[in-house]
Backbone:
């Protein structure tokens, strides 16, 4: 009876601890998030590979650091900011949208828009030309006669 | 054939691209602009390669202009740079803090025993703790730290006598003249 009582007490006593346990990410969660962050960070020595896929020793250490920071409670964004703070925008595989990257981000859309407008204007102008007066019945007769002559001569 | 303004468009586009690419080619993509200039040297606390029980931290930079040099026994260009650093040390030009990066204690010590030790102290950074904090991408890489412990200059690649004389030393003298 006493044993059960103690068990029940300890169960209830441990209840407030449970949310605290949920706060610290599990190893699986750390690994999942580290992979996500690692795929978005450029390996600074191999330049066109994310650190998650690179065999470079510096990339290995960066992966370790990413995991260590996530384990310490950093959010993914905080880890990215930490790396950006040290290696600059270059370390981010996806360039941030800011003054010096507007050209990069908006040129495709601007070009598409420009050519769409250009195309619409051209088509309108073209259809306006079709409204030109058509041949009268008399003119059409002369035209077919001429065309037939041409065919015979050939 | 008559040249119209529309006919010139391809030529203009070609020239603009040509100029953009020509400028791009003069830039070395492996040399990243440093984020660290004019920032305090990152806090660190790492073992001393020559006395693994002792630790070195940022208090090392107390009031003196220092050259911080990242090296490793595995780094080929460091062999090339080493005699220059030895000469700087012999002439008492500047205190040099070494950072032995991604190395083993044995190999690091052997490397210093072979060519001589130009460093006042050597930080042992096996796991890139300090190197990543410094935004280091390769070795050798050097930083000039001012009297207040701020990073003021970054040099990538081996320091030659010419680079020291023409580029780094004038900068060090300027920093030493600062209050």
Residues:
């Amino acid at each position: 009876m006493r044993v059960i009582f103690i068990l029940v007490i300890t169960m209830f006593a441990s209840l407030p601890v449970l949310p605290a346990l949920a706060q610290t990410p599990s190893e699986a969660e750390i690994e999942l998030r580290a992979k996500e962050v690692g795929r978005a960070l450029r390996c600074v020595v191999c330049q066109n590979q994310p650190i998650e896929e690179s065999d470079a020793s510096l990339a290995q250490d960066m992966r370790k650091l990413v995991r260590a920071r996530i384990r310490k409670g950093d959010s993914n964004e905080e880890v990215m900011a930490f790396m950006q703070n040290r290696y600059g925008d270059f370390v981010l595989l996806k360039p941030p949208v800011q003054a010096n990257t507007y050209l990069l981000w908006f040129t495709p859309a601007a070009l598409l828009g420009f050519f769409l407008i250009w195309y619409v204007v051209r088509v309108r102008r073209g259809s306006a030309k079709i409204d030109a007066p058509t041949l009268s019945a008399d003119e059409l007769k002369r035209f077919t006669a001429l065309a037939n002559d041409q065919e015979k001569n050939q | 054939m008559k040249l119209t303004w529309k006919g010139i468009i391809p030529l203009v586009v070609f020239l603009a691209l040509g100029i953009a690419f020509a400028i791009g080619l003069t830039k070395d993509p492996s040399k990243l602009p440093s984020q660290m200039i004019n920032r305090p040297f990152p806090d660190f606390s790492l073992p001393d390669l020559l006395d693994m029980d002792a630790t070195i931290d940022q208090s090392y930079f107390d009031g003196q202009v220092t050259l911080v040099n990242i090296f490793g026994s595995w780094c080929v260009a460091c062999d090339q740079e080493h005699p220059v650093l030895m000469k700087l040390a012999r002439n008492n030009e500047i205190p040099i803090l070494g950072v032995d990066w991604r190395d083993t204690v044995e190999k690091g010590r052997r490397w210093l025993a072979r060519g001589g030790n130009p460093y006042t102290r050597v930080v042992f950074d096996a796991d890139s703790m300090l190197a990543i904090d410094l935004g280091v991408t390769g070795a050798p890489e050097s930083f000039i730290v001012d009297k207040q412990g701020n990073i003021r200059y970054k040099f990538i690649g081996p320091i030659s006598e010419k680079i020291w004389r023409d580029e780094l030393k004038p900068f060090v003298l300027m920093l030493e003249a600062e209050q």
Remarks:
- Residues 16-22 of chain A have pLDDT under 50 and may be disordered.
- Chain A has two domains: 2-96, 100-153.
- Helices of chain A lie at 2-14, 17-23, 27-40, 57-71, 76-87, 102-130, 137-153.
- The radius of gyration of chain A is 35 Å.
